[in-house]
Model the fold of this input.
Amino acid sequence: MVNEMTDAGDKMKERANGFGGPGVVLTEEQARSRRARNIAIGATIALLAVLFYAVTLVKFGAAIINRTL
Amino acid sequence: MSDASYLHDEQAPRISVASPSDYFALLKPRVMSLVVFTALAGLLLAPTPPHPLIGFASLLAIAVGAGASGALNMWYDADVDALMTRTRKRPIPAGRLDPEAALGFGLVLATLSVFTLGYVANWFAAALLAFTIFFYVVIYTMWLKRWTPMNIVIGGAAGALPPMVGFAAATGEINLASVVLFAIIFMWTPPHFWSLALLKSEDYGRAGVPMLPNVAGEDRTRLEILIYALALAPLGVAPWLLGFASLAYGLVSIGCGIALVAMAAAVFKQREGEAARAAARRMFLFSLLYLFLLFLVLVVEQTAHIFALI
Done:
């Protein structure tokens, strides 16, 4: 049973890797720059979300708390 | 064959090694800082300044719009940039960034900046920002720059618009004061860039960009610099004469205007050798200081006015 599961897993890995090839292997420099870009994009999106939230609060003004409870 | 050797194959996917700083360089940070500064002056001229956060977000959107223009300019001009010593270390000609990545980056930022300004400020300011980006990228970069030595004169309108965008962001309209600030930058642009062109005429010639010294000659360029400086000096005083700047601004603008004309006269007079280059270099650097000082005084006194210190 366990052997059957292992075989199925290996086959899936082979398919995912394209006939058992290594897939895309990044060099150290590529991996480093991709990570830096991802961090920059993430930080930018987070800052934009905070900025839009704060701007929306300011645009609503005091009316934002004027609602039926 | 090692596991990673196929990456050197031409069929292998191209994987970028561009860093965030390469993308930041696409925004032309120095130009962007000037845009933010002049837009801030326009924004502070509003009779009722916006909420600080709205003002900050508006300036951020204007800055990103200017950065997007820079990225799209670098995408289109990559071939020219590669031929000029001044620009060949930019991310695309240096091979650190694909042109397609710069194009996508510029288009996304342009769209984001316009819609952000529309949301945080108003849609008139957003339309004006969109027009500014369009003018810089399409009218200046794609059309005028490689076609006519008047590229800087007409294209300068794009760099002159930020104070009007800033004022529009705060008020939803434009007024005479913001048009005067536009006119000052518009008249400032040609003598500033022609001074640089005198120093880098070989560069522009190699790249085939028809700057005035290459097309009409250095003597004609020196005359044009003097004429524009003579027109700019009184125009720089206009904010005081029209009553939207203080006497302090008036004195600074008169003093700087006299110095600017004196340096333009030196450029006109010194035509040979190292003295000519030194005069052009001084004019180029002082013109930067001139614009910075004028707008600095405006920003300081408008800020002081807002905090009711004067």
In short: Residues 28-174 of chain B form a domain with the Tetracycline Repressor; domain 2 fold (CATH 1.10.357.140). Chain B touches chain A at residues 3-4, 6-7, 13, 15-20, 23, 51, 53-54, 57, 60, 119-120 (CB under 8 Å). Chain B has two domains: 28-174, 176-310.
